[in-house]
Amino acid sequence: MDIETRLKTAIRDALRAAGITAPESLSAIVLEHPDDPTHGDFATTIALVAAKAARVNPRELAGKLAAALSAAHIESVDRVETAGPGFINFYLTTGYFIRELETIEKRGDLYGNSNEQRGRRVLVEYTDPNPFKEFHIGHLMSNAIGESIARLIASQGAKVRRMCYQGDFGLHVAKTLWAALHREAVATGSIPAKRAPLAERIAFLGSCYAEGSRAYEDDPAAKQAIDELNKKIFDGKDRAVNKLYKLGKKWSLQHFEEIYAKLGTKFDYYVLESEVAHDGIAIVDEFLEKGVFERSDGAVVFHGEKHDPKLHTRVFINSQGIPTYEAKELGLNTKKWKKVHPDESIIITANEQNDYFRVVMKALELILPEAAKATKHISHGMLRFAEGKMSSRTGNVITGESLIADVEKLVQTKLALRDMDDDEKKEAAEIIAVAAIKYSILRQATSSDIVYDFDTSISFEGDSGPYLLYTAVRAQSVLDKAKSEGVKPKIEWKVTDKREIGLLERELVRFPEVVARAASEKAPHHVATYLIGLASLFNGWYARVPIVAADDPGSPYKVALTQAVRIVLANGLKLLGIKVPDRM
RNA sequence: GCUGCCGUAGUUCAAUGGAUAGAACGGAGGUUUCCUAAACCUUAAAUGUAGGUUCGAUUCCUACCGGUGGCACCA
């Protein structure tokens, strides 16, 4: 039984003994860590909450409960005190912390994991870039958040599967291909050769998309031509169009694969929109007959507002018979259900899709209620410029790979003076750059926007990814020194020691609790916030205390503590999808 | 117009309804014969406005103000 369960059980027993109706579920008993360490390791406000119903003085009730809790001699609890208006504070024993430190060393890279979600199957869909369009920094955001949530859930014992849904169908493809064909026709540019570097071919597609989008909005003739081309692509009967379509798609997917590798994501499933489009139509047709969908102006629509006034009408099949994003979403989700049958199906997108998802999920609820029930849409904020929204339609975007490359260059200048060879520097620069970017995304709650500014968004100091890496690397170099000087880490504690369990030890042992919370709330920023606090405590301690000294009897313990810090930092960073370089 | 989300130091972010609102950057001042100064130490600085619920509100409710997203054939 863990310490929190022991405390909560004891609190419930004490309440009952005091003649107060105690909550049946332990989760209703709230334990917190006081901000001020002199208030103990755990505190509960149960006396404040229960006092009113019982019509007693909260301070008296707290005193009564504390006396009972004291008398109960809870394992690992040193003493119980009351404070303020009726707080009950618990102080843990030295032995508790020493045993936890031993657990860290013993469990190593498994420390922080649990079996809380064993047996559950969870599917996470994220990143979702579209072939023929750029992989922009919004996709970077979805990837960082999705990857971290996947790792967090897996750390709690669930079987996690990752899915990437890529939009290879739809108007954006027609716009891009139209511009490519148009350029050839008017001889203003030609399609790059196969031998051209991939980056050049991708840039070509991006500029075609921007050109096609402008034409679609400004030129009615072009709009008509693009709509017709969209139909041709969907029908798949025009050989020339098919050939160009397949080529562009291949380039895009190849390009995305390079980025996933750099970011450290491995998908279990790739689903293309073209694979679910026909299923989507079939579903909509079937439920059109059953009355879920209706015809309107030649299109097939779902009147969301008929089910919930907060919802609105959306088109599922347009008047040309082509399925929209909505119909494809239904095809995708029924496919997920058949293929993976998850207990929980998580979809991560930008929050501009919130209202869209509410409508589509309502439709799914009427079609496949079990699947709708298991599905959870998590949205993240937008990466935006101070001046406004980023849009690939206008070409006003920052691509994922250019951002990584720019940050890498900056990191290289900082590594210049280090005594490392070029390959080592290059490898470290890539790891550090990805860490800096991912951390800047994961440090805050996923729902809020990030206003992007290269100079301030990607930080190397203070509350940043590189700070965490630097701390982990520094801890490693202390461990290396200990090894070379023959100081072996040893967790030992004698009653006669004058040392005290410090803030560093107290913070270290809270890691599993933080991970559990981050996993259940699907909120990676809890891990990020925790790691910064831990790193800061370690750095402060490091600056004050010499760790490695052969003639210091306390040295083996301090080396062991350093090792525990290194383990927890590395494990936490891994949950954020961040690797630690050997040196930096 | 209807509707969703968000307003915390100069700036970017934290804070399961609890004790003195916590960091980072930037500002001011300091630390390197010693394990990586991408570090450390000291210091000034904040809950949009008005009500309400509560023993207790940054957190919940209402209104207003400001920002941002969505609202029919894009994704």
Helix content: 40-55%
**How many DSSP-defined strands?**
14
Summed up, the helix count is: 21
The CATH topology assignment of the largest domain is Rossmann fold
Mean of residue pLDDT? 92
What Rg is obtained from the alpha carbons, in whole angstroms? 29 Å
Query: Can you tell me the overall shape?
Result: flat
Strand order of the largest sheet: 7-6-5-11-12
Compute the separation of the termini in Å: 41 Å
Low-pLDDT stretches are none
What can be said about the biggest beta sheet?
5 strands, parallel
What is the C-level CATH assignment of the largest domain? Alpha Beta
Q: Total domains, how many?
A: 3
- Name of the CATH architecture of the largest domain: 3-Layer(aba) Sandwich
Structural class category:
alpha/beta
Strand content: 5-15%
Kindly report the name of the CATH homologous superfamily of the largest domain.
Answer: HUPs
Structure overview:
With 584 residues, the chain is of the alpha/beta class. The protein has three domains: 3-92, Arginyl tRNA synthetase N-terminal domain (Gyrase A, domain 2, 2-Layer Sandwich), CATH 3.30.1360.70; 126-385, Rossmann fold; 400-575, Isoleucyl-tRNA Synthetase, Domain 1 (Orthogonal Bundle), CATH 1.10.730.10. It has helices spanning 3-17, 46-54, 58-71, 94-107, 137-155, 171-185, 198-218, 220-235, 239-263, 273-289, 325-339, 354-367, 369-374, 400-415, 422-442, 454-457, 465-484, 503-508, 511-521, 525-544, 555-575; strands at 31-32, 42-44, 77-83, 87-92, 121-125, 159-166, 269-272, 294-296, 299-303, 313-317, 344-350, 375-380, 383-385, 450-452. A five-stranded parallel beta sheet has the order 7-6-5-11-12, sandwiched between helices. Strands 1-2-4-3 form a four-stranded antiparallel beta sheet. Helix 6 crosses helix 7 and helix 6 crosses helix 8. It binds one RNA strand of 75 nucleotides through helix 2, helix 6, strand 9, strand 10 and helix 12.
